[in-house]
Write a structure and sequence with these properties.
- The structure is a single chain.
- The protein is an all-alpha fold.
- The chain has a domain of 68 residues.
- 73% of the residues lie in helices and 0% in strands.
- The protein contains 6 helices and no strands.
- Helix 3 packs antiparallel against helix 4.
- The longest helix is centred in the middle third of the chain and has 35 residues.
- The radius of gyration is 21 Å and the shape is elongated.
Length: 163
């Protein structure tokens, strides 16, 4: 209906674009931590597979450190955005006049959870490094092996067949 009224009447009644933008930002930020836990973030592994477990663990540690640092910076700036929108009582410039702190707060929540998850995984990786357990580091934050990716794909396919 929104597309029809916009194209025929040149009017917008449903604000679907605004709401879908908020939903997109929320779903992306909330999905980052899940992607991290699932070890599905993109990593280049051409040379990685040639290294011994200790070197892989060091590379994994460097990767999670940089990712955690980036996530913390993103969360900090998202918090500043939400705080500023809240402090000036900012609203969207549409007929909905949505208080921007609301969707931005959800967006910040996802980024904050991502940062917490990344820092937690970094701390666990350091602990496993101290305990000399490189296999545990690879299991938690390493690149998925080809067989692990195939197994995850089969689980996803089996799950979709059952629905």
């Amino acid at each position: 209906m929104d597309v029809l009224t916009r194209s025929v009447l040149r009017l917008t009644f449903f604000q679907s674009f605004e709401l879908s933008s908020y939903a997109f930002a929320a779903s992306v930020s909330l999905g980052l931590a899940f992607t991290l836990i699932s070890r599905m973030h993109i990593r280049i592994e051409v040379v990685y597979v040639l290294f011994k477990p200790w070197m892989r663990a060091c590379l994994d540690l460097a990767a999670i450190l940089t990712l955690a640092g980036t996530a913390v910076v993103f969360a900090w700036f998202a918090f500043q955005t939400v705080w500023y929108s809240w402090s000036i009582n900012s609203h969207s410039n549409t007929t909905l006049a949505m208080p921007l702190a609301l969707p931005q707060g959800i967006w910040f929540g996802g980024l904050a959870w991502f940062a917490i998850t990344a820092v937690w995984l970094f701390a666990r990786a350091v602990l496993n490094l101290i305990r000399k357990r490189p296999q545990a580091i690879s299991r938690e934050i390493g690149v998925l092996a080809l067989q692990e990716e195939i197994d995850q794909s089969e689980i996803t396919l089996d799950h979709s067949k059952n629905e």
